[in-house]
Design brief:
With about 70 residues, the chain is mainly α. The chain has four helices and no strands. Bound molecules: zinc ion.
Length: about 70
């Protein structure tokens, strides 16, 4: 739905990193490069998201708010 502000496990702020992550990945896609696990891992490292609990917050999130909002 909406990205949680903090990581459920450790409490690190991940909401701001999520927007940067999405922007960086779409930038890589637009440049024509293939996005694979290595690219995603390096992007998260560059953002400073190193713990796997924080990584799962970003990687497992699905942005559904725009699809749900018309029904509220
Ligand atoms: Zn965490």
């Amino acid at each position: 739905m909406i990205i949680p502000v903090r990581c459920f496990s450790c409490g690190k702020v991940v909401a701001s990193d999520y927007r940067k992550f999405v922007a960086k990945i779409s930038e890589i896609k637009d440049s024509g490069k293939k996005v694979d696990a290595t690219v995603i891992s390096k992007t998260l490292d560059d953002l400073g998201v190193e713990r796997y609990c924080c990584r799962r917050m970003i990687l497992s999130h699905t942005e559904l708010i725009d699809e749900v909002l018309p029904f509220s």
